[in-house]
Amino acid sequence: MNRVPNLPVGGRPRRQRRFLFLLIVALLSGCDVAAEPYVVTHTPNPSRVPLPTLVVPTPLVGPSPRPPTIPPPTPNVVPTSTPRGTPSSGPVPLPTLVVAPAPTLPGQAVELPRDIGYDGGWWAVLFSPGKAGNEANGFYILDKLVGYIDAAQTSIHLAVFETDVTPIAEALARAHARGVDVRWVTDDEHGIDADGEPGRGQFALLEDAGVGVRDDLRSGLMHNKFVIIDGHIVWTGSMNLTHNDIFRNNNNIVVVESPEVAAVYEAEFEEMWDGRFGPRSPAQAGQDVLDRNGRPFIIRFAPEDDPMAALVQLTSLAERSIRFMAFSFTHDELGATMRERAAAGVDVRGIFETFGSETIYSEMTPLFCAGVGVRQDGNAGMLHHKVVIIDDTVVVTGSLNFSDNAADSNDENFLILADAGIAKLYLEEFERRWAEARPPTVDC
């Protein structure tokens, strides 16, 4: 298999102002480490803030089914890569993003505690509670997803690594019973094969109800965590549909109502439904779309879009700050790039999930010993985020862990969101996690 050569850390062109970034994407994943099930009985609370009414928006770009493309960058800022599986006919330009300079929080906002996130009606950024005693946050997230499922009229397509949450399965069965096209692509080992374990059985429930369920039947992971509803709502991020991830682990979710964004995810879902996983899946590079405010959503899928080089590229462009929260971070070049940026005066801070962070493969010790501000998380569960925040304006998030061993085989997705308002929400989550984290005690 041919890989795009790693982009050099040094020798980059003159960096632009912080409001201009070129990018595509990147990273990878490894298997999520299972913790003891954290089971919370779900009883919907009728006094909870109601979910927003789902109204299918009018597409922004006219009748053409093709989403708008991001303009190409100017010639002096064009590091390039060729998507895997496509013939090389010269450099492929990375898209240029103009970052919104101020928060742009649209829609009818729902009042939420600050540690949940922001719900703007047609888009939301949500954070799972990460600790016992704060189950209300988890119930808000669970109720929101179940509410979307119960409101679905035509289709619900899920590409989710694993589940053990019966209320979600029951809501999907109800949707199928009323004629909604409900289909789920999952991982074989952690999805279908694990369905007979204690506390599981949700896939059996779905299949008994007539819902279509398929797995990847291969050694790589189907590690996505996205849901598409009625062809215009996308739910994605780091959160598996499990009790641990909803109520115990630190996770983030992005929800957007956009037919353009949904169309890109639908194409990836249908490829997997047809059995095209991993390197056999066609590249989606170039499927960049705009949301209602004209903000670009850069969407990439691994391994076919080979995003790792682009994440390294994006990180190398940081001028002021880098923040990251990482369940798994073992990618050497990304670690080297962060050390180089820190040596150049960029303020770099990051939080590692404690489990596995002191192994010889982890980037925590090399960063710590280079003087980079890193900590180990303080959650008794898992810090399950896969987030990088660049210069307080650009957020990279999704299902991809910052590791190299699965970059060529896992099915993953991630977003690059260039918006100061969204970045502010992630920075607040970072500071919450930083406050409860602790410095490592490793030897240099």
Strand order, biggest sheet? 3-4-10-9-8-5-6-7
Instruction: Give the topology string: H per helix, E per strand.
Output: EEEEHEHEHHEEEHEHEEHEHEHEEEEH
| Arithmetic mean of pLDDT | 78
Low-confidence stretches: 1-107
The name of the CATH topology of the domain at 117-264 is Endonuclease, Chain A
Oligomer state equals: single chain
CATH-derived architecture of the domain at 117-264: 2-Layer Sandwich
Task: Describe the structure in your own words.
The protein has 444 residues and is an alpha+beta fold. It has a domain at 117-264: 2-Layer Sandwich (Endonuclease, Chain A), CATH 3.30.870. The chain contains 10 helices and 18 strands. The strands form 3 sheets. An 8-stranded mixed beta sheet has the order 3-4-10-9-8-5-6-7, with helices on both faces. The chain has an 8-stranded mixed beta sheet with strand order 11-12-18-17-16-13-14-15, with helices on both faces. A two-stranded antiparallel ribbon has the order 1-2. Strand 13 (321-326), helix 8 and strand 14 (347-352) form a beta-alpha-beta unit. Helix 2 packs parallel to helix 4 (202-208) and helix 7 (308-316) runs parallel beside helix 8 (332-343). The radius of gyration is 20 Å and the shape is globular. The two termini are 37 Å apart.
